[in-house]
Amino acid sequence: MWAICKKELRQFFTSLTGYLAIIVFLLLNGLFLFVFPDSSIFDFGYATLDKFFELAPWILLLLIPAITMRSFSDEFRSGTYEILLTRPLSKTQIILGKYVAALIVVVVALIPTLFYVFTIKDLSTGGIDSGGIAGSYVGLIFLAATFTAIGICSSSFTANPVVSFLLSAFLCFLFYNAFSAVSKIPTLKSGTDYYVEMLGIDFHYQSISRGVLDSRDLIYFLSLIFFFLFVTDKNLEKR
């Protein structure tokens, strides 16, 4: 597994595309947080990172599919997947190797955003909610881990990286926001709306972001990750 992980990391960081994806993620966050007037933290009158944690999932919704779209698609297109199967590795090890590598790249992209925490701390005169920020980062990592599993799964369906990207972005959007949007339909206001909203990633992400680690939220994220990696395994079996 670690051999596959190292190979994937080496391929990602030896290309300009890898660094460009991380730079674009940080640049967009920086522009929205400190430059654009409608979302700039300087326009709120108080120091908070709430805007960052609201915005980051939407940027990750596009960044992670860009990172994972070649995971299996390139292997199928170039014919190297068959060569990969001749190695002393199980399908599970191959999947986990690619999954862990992609997740490491996402975490590397998130690490520089800790600079925002220190910036907000310097701007604040009354201190910041450290517990809430820590919870929000934990929620963001779980969300990123789920998006990564979706991206890896999407890549196992096709040999075309562009199709993989579009499918992954669509599924990430669907699981992140669609259930929350459907729950607002007036006919579901009798109590069903709450259970529909619970099916979406945003509900559990917001729950963890409050600084409370609820076992139900953790089980939800881990179940989604397992489900998409399981589907990936079944897709590879068909090949």
Topology:
Layout: H1 2-13, H2 16-34, H3 50-68, H4 73-78, H5 80-85, H6 91-110, H7 114-123, H8 130-155, H9 161-182, H10 192-198, H11 201-209, H12 215-238
Shape: globular
Q: Tell me the β content.
A: under 5%
Low-pLDDT stretches are none
Q: How many runs of DSSP E, i.e. beta strands?
A: 0
Number of domains: 1
Oligomer: single chain
- Tell me the helix content: over 70%
Span of the ends, CA to CA? 20 Å
Structural class: mainly alpha
Q: What letter string, H or E per element, gives the SSE order?
A: HHHHHHHHHHHH
Largest sheet: none
Total of DSSP H or I helical runs spanning 4+ residues: 12
Radius of gyration in whole Å, from Cα?
19 Å
Give average pLDDT, whole number.
84
